[in-house]
Amino acid sequence: MVHLLTDILRNSILITGLVVVMMMLIESLNIESRGSLFSGLKKTRTGQVIFSALLGSIPGCIGGFASVSLYTHRMISFGALIAMMVASSGDEAFMIVAMVPDKALMIFAILFLIAVASGLVTDFVCDRIRIEKHGLETGLVADTHCKQDFEVHEHVSNTRSLSWKRVVMFLGVLVFIAALAAGVLDHGHAEVPGPGKPGSLDLLDEKWMQYLFAGLSIIVLCFLIFASDHYVERHMWDHIVKKHLPTIFAWTFGVLLVVGFGMRYMDISGWISDNTALMILLAAAIGMIPESGPHLIFVTLYASGIVPLPVLLASSVSQDGHSSLPLLAESKKSFVAAKLINFAVALVTGYITLLI
To answer: What is the per-residue pLDDT for 192?
Structure first.
């Protein structure tokens, strides 16, 4: 029992650390590029769909927030918005990279292709029945709070001081690097034997990946040293450390705990393997929740070999983290329509890939 809890805690710390480091790195690159990551939007419908799908492929919420803001400014089509939502897996994209790095690129590539196809079909249908003209975009305002996540704050002071928040984050990342280098987080096995046979929740045992993230963490340290107080406090501390870190750790630990004990005392894998079609429906339905966290269970089940790829694809297509929350604030009609289309695409994707 103690060994199981220790391994689950170790895996939770490792996964949370990897996710937070990636989020900090992407946030830093976005701010330092002065928003140029989202420039060069093409004016054709096809170009908008492809561009928005690429934004959705960026792990986390930054690309999704950018797409929603572009949509509310009438710079991209409704189909392009759908493409982003299909391609985006929210913060769970970080989990996919962390838990199944050998299959992450394949999964993201499949999602991107489905996203582009879905976006083009949606625009084709919208053009025919004039959904956008008859109210789908009504009520959209010219400004949204989410654009602050990727626009430049040119009038903000660039002062740098040795604040306690900067020190805490610096030391936290430094300790994480040391733990990776020393192997403290290596081979976190959560032994969860099923009936009559041993098993384990061996999520992250690739040594090369630990070295890679140690290197990326060093880059984050450099950003923490040279970044302005405004950037450190608002983007790094308020957005990532205060908002995301506790939620990511809580959901990660909770899901691993449930799956770990479930696999130890119940034949969960047997039940789920006999109900794959139902799991696809469940994954697509839970994906309707506009928040990161609940969808992590499907990433965990896939990484553990309990559910097949169609279930993870259905979950990834249907959910987009909390990228769509600003859309809900701006246009409830667009939000509902987009979520229903996402749900339909998720079901089609899941059941087609199940048959293949």
So the answer is: 39
Q: Is the pTM of this model over 0.85?
A: no
- Per-10-residue mean pLDDT, the chain, length 356: 80 81 78 61 79 86 76 83 90 80 89 95 85 48 42 57 90 92 64 41 54 85 88 86 84 76 61 76 84 74 86 90 73 88 94 90
Angle between helices 101-129 and 332-355 (to 10 degrees): 120
Question: Tokens representing 119?
Answer: 């976006």
Q: Spell out the residues 6+ positions from residue 302 whose beta carbon is closer than 8 angstroms to its own.
A: 99, 100, 308, 309, 311, 312
CB 320 within 8 A of CB 88: yes
User: Which backbone phi and psi does 36 adopt, to 5 degrees?
Assistant: -70, -15
Asked if 24 and 240 count as a contact pair (C-beta separation under 8 A), the reply is yes
Q: How far apart are CA 225 and CA 258, in angstroms?
A: 39
In the 3-class helix/strand/coil scheme, how is the chain assigned residue by residue? Answer: CHHHHHHHHHHHHHHHHHHHHHHHHHHHHHHHCCCHHHCCCCCCHHHHHHHHHHHHHCCCCHHHHHHHHHHHCCCCCHHHHHHHHHHCCCCHHHHHHHHCHHHHHHHHHHHHHHHHHHHHHHHHHHHHHCCHHHHHCCCCCCCCHHHHHCCCCCCCCCCCCCCHHHHHHHHHHHHHHHHHHHCCCCCCCCECCECCECCECCCCCCHHHHHHHHHHHHHHHHHHHHCCHHHHHHHHHHHHHHHHHHHHHHHHHHHHHHHHHHHHHCCHHHHHHCCHHHHHHHHHHHCCCCCCCCCHHHHHHHHCCCCCHHHHHHHHHHCECECCHHHHHHCHHHHHHHHHHHHHHHHHHHHHHHHC
What's the angle, vertex CA 88, arms to CA 142 and CA 91, rounded to 5? 100
